[in-house]
Amino acid sequence: MKNYGVFDILGPVMIGPSSSHTAGAARLAKMASTISGEGIEKVEFILHGSFAKTYKGHGTDRALVGGILGMDPWDIRIRNSFSHAQDQKLEYSFIEGDLGDVHPNTIKFRIFKESGRIVEISGSSIGGGSIRIYEVDGQPVELNGEYPTLIISYKDQPGMLSKISTVLYQSEINIAFLKVFRNIRGEKAVMVCETDSGCGRSIRQRIRDLGDIYSVKEIRPLKEGEENVC
Amino acid sequence: MFVNTGKELIEACSKENISISEYTIRTQIDTEGSNREVVINKMRNNLKVMKDSAEYALKNSVKSVSGLIGGQAKTLYDYSLNEKTLTGEFMVRAMARALSCSEVNAAMGRIVAAPTAGSCGILPAVIISAAEKLEKNDEEMINALFTASGVGIIIAKNATLSGAEGGCQAECGSAAAMAAAAVIEMMGGTPEMALHGAAIVIKNILGLVCDPVAGLVEIPCAKRNLAGAVNALSTVDLVMSGVTSFIPFDDVVSAMYKVGKSLPCELRETALGGIATTETGILLKNKVL
């Protein structure tokens, strides 16, 4: 039997109308934006299934653009996210597509960066505002944003896991879940580390200082910050 | 960990001689590893958002994103101010509040999913209206929200709160059951009475399908929030008079789950049946999509 907390039942605080099509969409986009990093010029939103059929009426489109701009699912600016995008010179387009045998509410983000780099991120809104990012640049991952999540990309070599976890241990940060992924031995590996408490800037910098670290990103959980919405 | 059934919930409360809200608060503190103040303040924030969304569309004529609904909450509220109503100012005000939340939601305003966005009007309408009438303060309303979530946890564990899985009975039905239990406790009813209320509410709408026009959370969702609030409030009086549910809460929840599972997928949020595929439903869909 699955366990539920009080705020799984009452919550999230969100911009309507649909937890899966609006709140979940904003959250997916915010996560995609965080993963790809600053300097986003243009985004193609490739919508699958129910997302593709009902995105206008559910405000999925505005939620997605808001999320890319860093808005949280409870941010009232989501309603006018298109004009915010114009102000910030963000280009976007919505494309109805078929992403295969996936959840009905699935999206692929194709993110074009100032640097010329293109980042592709796929994820699903799995109900109640919960999400799952399952692919980043062709690499399978598993991210749900329930916990503060560190995404660390580094050179695949012995000892990296031990060095990073030592920094976390010294900072008294408890690792709740940990996964590592890589495509080719000795090249780029990605560690997804969900923790009980967030890290913050200085700890992220200590990890960067370890050497052979390509990037360190942190994603805050959806529910965090809700006590500050009013 | 939170108990698994209504029966266990009543036992746990009676063992400690506490209410459902107190049991729920204590369990949440343990689960989070936080303290009472943190947990209460999170709920205080929920209450604030609920109050705003229950109030806004009474005074402002809002329009949903699709343009299908909006303005009905204000119409009803104005009627309660200007006309002699049949069911009384209290009931009509509660109905208008439920509509208000649903309209705010459909217009991309801020709401609390309670337990879902589609059913976000019932709990605020019932709790706020009851508290107003019974002269209860914010702390007592916050307690009521904990009672409601305690009952919701049991339903989520044994059935579902999702329209896609169990139809509207699982969304609006659960919301109304949670709301009735909360007000019964607010009025001094026992945990057992609260669950009698929750059981009766669900029985009253068992089998209700989820058939949104154009797949949007608008028609018939907003009015079903209103109906859910009325169902909850009338059941509170029934239970406070001493009437009980012949079928216990746990049995009713299990029946609701089975009924939900046996609904064809056309009637579970896919917009492929019911109101959604009526002649007018299809016309409206073609207009907005």
TrEMBL record, chain A:
What does it catalyze?
L-serine = pyruvate + NH4(+)
Q: Which cofactors does it use?
A: [4Fe-4S] cluster
* Assigned protein family: Belongs to the iron-sulfur dependent L-serine dehydratase family.
Q: Where does this protein have coiled-coil stretches?
A: none
Q: Which domain of life is it from?
A: Bacteria
Residue ranges of every copy of the ACT domain listed in the record: 149-224
Q: Which Gene Ontology molecular function entries are recorded, alphabetically?
A: 4 iron, 4 sulfur cluster binding; L-serine ammonia-lyase activity; metal ion binding
Q: NCBIfam families, per this entry?
A: sda_beta
- Which pathway features in its UniProt record? Carbohydrate biosynthesis; gluconeogenesis
| A Pfam family the protein falls into | SDH_beta
GO BP terms in the entry: gluconeogenesis
> Mind listing the UniProt keywords for this protein, alphabetically?
4Fe-4S, Gluconeogenesis, Iron, Iron-sulfur, Lyase, Metal-binding
Q: What is this protein called?
A: L-serine deaminase
UniProtKB/TrEMBL annotation, chain B:
Pathway as given in its UniProt record: Carbohydrate biosynthesis; gluconeogenesis
Give the record's keywords alphabetically. Answer: 4Fe-4S, Gluconeogenesis, Iron, Iron-sulfur, Lyase, Metal-binding
Which InterPro entries does the annotation name?
Answer: Fe-S_L-Ser, Ser_deHydtase-like_asu, Ser_deHydtase_asu
Source taxon at top rank: Bacteria
Q: Which Pfam families match?
A: SDH_alpha
The GO terms describing molecular function are: 4 iron, 4 sulfur cluster binding; L-serine ammonia-lyase activity; metal ion binding
Q: What is its EC number?
A: 4.3.1.17
Give every Serine dehydratase-like alpha subunit domain span. 16-276
Could you say which cofactors this protein requires? Answer: [4Fe-4S] cluster
* NCBIfam families given in the database record: sda_alpha (TIGR00718)
PANTHER family named in the record: L-SERINE DEHYDRATASE, L-SERINE DEHYDRATASE 1
Q: In its UniProt entry, what is this protein called?
A: L-serine dehydratase
- Organism encoding this protein: Oceanirhabdus seepicola
The top of its lineage is: Bacteria, Bacillati, Bacillota, Clostridia, Eubacteriales
